[in-house]
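Posting this for the archive.
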Amino acid sequence: MKIEINKFKRITKRKQNFRIYQFGYLVILLILTSAITGCSKDDDTINVKDNICNNSDHSGYTTIEHNGITREYILHVTASYNSNDPVPLIINFHGYGGCASYYVNNVGDLNSLADIENFIVAYPQAVVGEKGDAYWDPGDNGIQSIGENDIYFTELLISKISNEYNVDSSRIYAIGFSNGGMMSYGLACSRGNLIAAVGIMSGVMLPESCDANEYTSVIHFHGIADDVLPYEGNQYYQSIQDVVNYWLNHNGIPASSLLTTDLNGGDVVRKSYSGGNENTSVILYTIHELNGKVGGHSWFTGDIEGNSPNQILWDFLSSNKLVD
């Protein structure tokens, strides 16, 4: 669909239409605010206050405007891009309290991989909500405002990029770290007609009703010792296995298809499920230890059987296409 983009106009605040989820989303945000502060360098450590990110200083800084509201993102297009050839697109969401510019440089950088594999990657910027931090609301509240509905914002972002570049509409993917992983799950849930597969780094799905007619493949990396979004879950979050089980059921993937593989001498365990509707699959990497560190709340960087998590992520995503 074509979206008409008007002249750009800066804003610094938005009205926050804040959904309360089954597990208490307001409480979740408070916990994430305090927990992320003490994360390691691999984590999304920068808290955005007063909507100051300095994203405009970063190469690839771009904006999208709709009905007088402007949102920011950073776009990386490979030097080898040829407008005659359709290319995949990845939307990569930063974590709670994050800046797109910091995220590109320090956490979820896919630019060098994009140059090798020839895909476009966009790093959107969340806006500051009523908690004083930038975060993603992964639920579709039905409001057609890019300032009040992050699902709608992403939908228009995909349309804008697709209008400007030759994007393969069957190979659009969403990935994210922590709260960005929540956003990716939200897109798989409500925009499965746009998103071919999602990749999650140390994220979790917030319970909601998904479109029963759309199926989405999932790859998820999670540390066994994650102290922000616990692997076994708690009173606020589902366990990671519960999230996996949800997508097995949603995609019609038989649990009996499970293949379990010990990697890196047992420091990483891979569970693979396949054979779902529209050839969907779900893969879970449980990180006990990687790169000399216990699997915590991070974007993982150590090699797994000789391949980086980023490469594993891309290999999985790129094997999935939307079915006409």
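DSSP finds seven helices and twelve strands in the chain. The first strand starts at residue 61 and ends at 66.
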